[in-house]
Design goal:
The complex is a heterodimer of chains A (334) and B (332). With 334 residues, chain A is α/β, with parallel strands linked by helices. Chain A contains 12 helices and 12 strands. In chain A, strands 6-7-8-3-9-10-12-11 form an 8-stranded mixed β-sheet, with helices on both faces. A 4-stranded antiparallel β-sheet of chain A has the order 2-1-4-5, with helices on one face. The two termini of chain A are 31 Å apart. The C terminus of chain A is likely disordered. Chain B is α/β, with parallel strands linked by helices. Chain B has a domain of 183 residues: P-loop containing nucleotide triphosphate hydrolases (Rossmann fold, 3-Layer(aba) Sandwich). In chain B, 33% of the residues lie in helices and 23% in strands. Chain B contains 11 helices and 12 strands. In chain B, strands 6-7-8-3-9-10-12-11 form an 8-stranded mixed β-sheet, with helices on both faces. A 4-stranded antiparallel β-sheet of chain B has the order 2-1-4-5, covered by helices on one side. Chain B starts with 6 loop residues before the first strand and ends in an 8-residue tail after the last strand. The chains are: A alpha/beta (334), B alpha/beta (332). Chains A and B meet through α7, α8, α9, α10 and α11 of A and α7, α8, α9 and α11 of B.
Chain lengths: 334, 332
């Protein structure tokens, strides 16, 4: 616990974030363990209400954690930004889902990009405009945009500005909270390719949150699936799609509408999805997924499943594999 | 029901424009489209290509006085909707033509219970159709039946619930129930799954398609997700900047897309099989004040010919109902 492993940028240990609401205690994140290597893209997938954004916000420091640890290169940052040294704030940046609301409509693009440069004293004041232009070039926007307002830009361009703002302070980890879900496919393609290019150039680590599995397949090195505040499966991207283990993952992948026959072959036997994610105030007993699961057994409603490593780097949290793992891993109906 | 080849809805050379301070925006410019009885037709395109405007024109709910139909016809069962009296239009809307909207939260009235909203619709339809007023009991029975058909559990309790008490998926199911209580001939759906999660979207699609095939309802499905179109629709219209650029059976269009725009769109979809994402189409949807001359796609097109910026390309028939509006169809 707490020992910093080389090459690891982020380690989340038993993270919990609970909210007290009028309806009762909401366990938005309830015991999440995950790590992120330097230069890696970790995909975080889940339906709305699964707690994926809460994890992101806790990493960035918008919320302080209820309990558990978030270690950024060995430093615990679980208490939120107010208790975080400025140098660490700078290291972790976020790009929000909707650029229409995350960019101040009354500021010029110049001001939007200059603010973080001033706050963190990235460049001397007389070089700020040059740096702003440089940032715009990096996100493939014309430098003439500095005297435009966000309203004058298209959705994709606004999101590029939001990315540029995150780049401004030379971060090491960027949290991308559904950065392309407000965009059309061709815009989405552009923004994603730009993000991948930037990663190649600067070696950023990305925590990429999306509910679009197609996007995930093309950007993430590893993928984690969340359901009701817990992680149910973690696997390298290719394996995640070729041999999904958790019934929820299988259901999710088979629900994606695809555009080619190749993709159709990849989908597991069509599992008809049913039910909805329950309210996090009233979480089902045992495994949270059991009311929707097609392979539910008695034990599922009584005991919490444990995370099992089925293959190297492929973790799954389901009773089915607990028993199988006890016998022989990788055989039978695994 | 009638045979599958009869035209239920036909749009001929429709032009719709919006008057703004900057000038006249020709958002739909010469659109041709048809939906046959019992057919599932998809309409795809990027944001701002005029999909929703098309839908609003069919339903006669263009924002007034800004939006107006300049020319063209929308013929539903032999009658032109654009030139119909308001009174006659009301006999069609909600009875012969119904709609499901993108955002179920905005589509339901927050201050009335689900029951009140459902009763109103059922009462109105019965009165329009037969002139009869239903008793409370009959209303209740029909409402329960409608909710049950939409796979909603515990319909009795649901009737007394307000929309805020339901999840997004449930609200969309209620909207489907509302849209399909009337055995309509045509259902227009404007991205009904977009605001929902994939598993819920899958359920909503399966439910609405099942209910529609049972009633032989035709549908015009407006979508930006190409996957949805491929899996559920019979025929697809691809729309770009207010015009349709390609029409085909959905199986054909995904196997052999012919218009450069359709190709670009398909390539840009991130695939589950991986392998990176193509760069997408350069540029963006044009401004409607001064749209490009000739083919509206030519400034973004890598296959453009000299003729493309002068003349508007006609539809070339490739057989098997596959038509494409592009001069450079012989390029490969």
């Amino acid at each position: 616990m707490g020992v910093h492993k080389l090459g690891e940028i982020l380690r989340i240990e038993n993270l919990k974030k609970h909210f007290q609401t009028a309806q009762g205690l909401v366990k938005a994140v309830d015991g999440v363990n995950i790590y992120l290597d330097e230069g890696e893209t970790l995909g975080l997938v889940g339906e709305s209400g699964s707690g994926k954004s809460t994890v992101a916000y806790t990493v960035v420091g918008i919320y302080g954690a209820t309990s558990g640890k978030i270690l950024f290169r060995g430093n615990d940052i679980s208490l939120g930004t107010s208790r975080r040294p400025r140098s660490l704030k700078k290291d972790i940046q976020i790009v929000f889902q909707d650029p229409g609301t995350s960019l101040n409509p009354r500021h010029y693009i110049h001001e939007i990009l200059a603010m973080p440069l001033r706050v963190h004293r990235i460049v001397p004041d007389n070089e700020i405009t040059d740096k702003v232009k440089d940032l715009l070039e990096q996100v493939q926007l014309p430098t003439s945009f500095i005297f435009k307002h966000p309203l004058e830009l298209g959705e994709g361009e606004k999101q590029s500005v939001a990315v540029a703002r995150a780049l401004a302070v030379n971060p090491s980890l960027i949290v991308l909270d559904e950065p392309t879900s407000a965009l059309d496919v061709s815009m989405q393609a552009k923004v994603i390719n730009m993000l991948l290019d930037l990663q190649k150039t600067y070696g950023f680590s990305y925590m990429f949150i999306t509910h679009d599995l197609g996007v995930m397949r093309n950007v993430a090195n590893r993928i984690a699936i969340m359901y009701l505040g817990k992680i149910c499966e973690v696997a390298p991207a290719a394996e995640f799609f070729h041999s999904p283990l958790h019934p929820y993952t299988q259901m999710l992948i088979s629900s994606v509408p695809v555009v080619s026959e190749d993709e159709e072959r990849l989908r597991p036997v069509k599992i008809a999805s049913h039910g909805e994610i329950p309210s996090p105030v009233n979480v089902p007993s045992g495994c949270g997924f059991h009311p929707r699961c097609s392979e539910v057994e008695e034990i599922c409603s009584t005991a919490l499943p444990e995370m099992v490593e089925v293959e190297a780097g492929h973790f799954v949290c389901c009773h089915k594999y607990k028993r199988a793992a006890g016998k022989a891993i990788g055989t039978g109906d695994l | 029901m009638m045979s599958g080849n009869m035209k239920l809805l036909e749009i001929r050379d429709l032009c719709v424009s919006y008057n703004t301070y900057e000038g006249k925006l020709k958002v739909v410019d010469g659109l041709n489209l048809e939906v046959r009885h019992g057919e599932k037709v998809g309409l795809v395109g990027e944001t701002g290509c005029g999909k929703t405007t098309t839908m609003r024109s069919i339903l006669g709910i263009l924002p007034k006085p800004v939006g107006q139909v300049d020319s063209g016809e929308i013929i539903f069962e032999g009658k032109d909707i654009c030139r119909m009296k308001k009174k006659d239009l009301q006999k069609l809307r909600g009875i012969e033509i119904t709609a499901i909207f993108q955002n179920p939260t905005a589509a339901l009235n927050p201050v009335f219970t689900i029951g009140q909203q459902l009763y109103d619709v059922i009462k109105f339809q019965e009165w329009r159709k037969t002139g009869r007023r239903l008793s409370r009991q009959e209303l209740h029975q029909r409402a329960i039946k409608a909710l049950k058909e939409a796979a909603l559990h515990d319909p009795e309790r649901l009737l007394s619930n307000y929309p805020v008490q339901l999840s997004g998926g449930m609200k969309q199911r209620v909207c489907i129930a509302l849209a399909l209580v009337s055995d309509a001939e045509l259902l227009i759906a404007d991205e009904p799954g977009t605001a929902l999660d994939v598993t819920i979207q899958d359920q909503i699609l399966r439910l609405s398609m099942f209910m529609m095939s049972k009633r032989n309802t035709a549908t015009l499905y407006i979508e930006h997700s190409l996957g949805v179109i491929r899996e559920w629709m019979d025929r697809v219209y691809v729309m770009y900047a207010g015009r349709t650029v390609e029409v085909a059976k959905s199986a054909d269009i995904f196997k052999s897309p012919r218009h450069p725009y359709t190709r670009g769109l398909l390539e840009a979809v991130p695939k589950l099989t991986g392998g990176g994402i193509a760069q997408g189409i350069q540029g963006r949807v044009p401004e409607y004040i001064r749209p490009p001359t000739g083919c509206r796609f030519h400034p973004r097109c890598e296959y453009r010919l000299d003729i493309c910026n002068r003349d508007r390309p006609p539809f070339f028939d490739l057989g098997n109902e596959h038509k494409v509006a592009c001069y450079n169809i012989k390029r490969d």
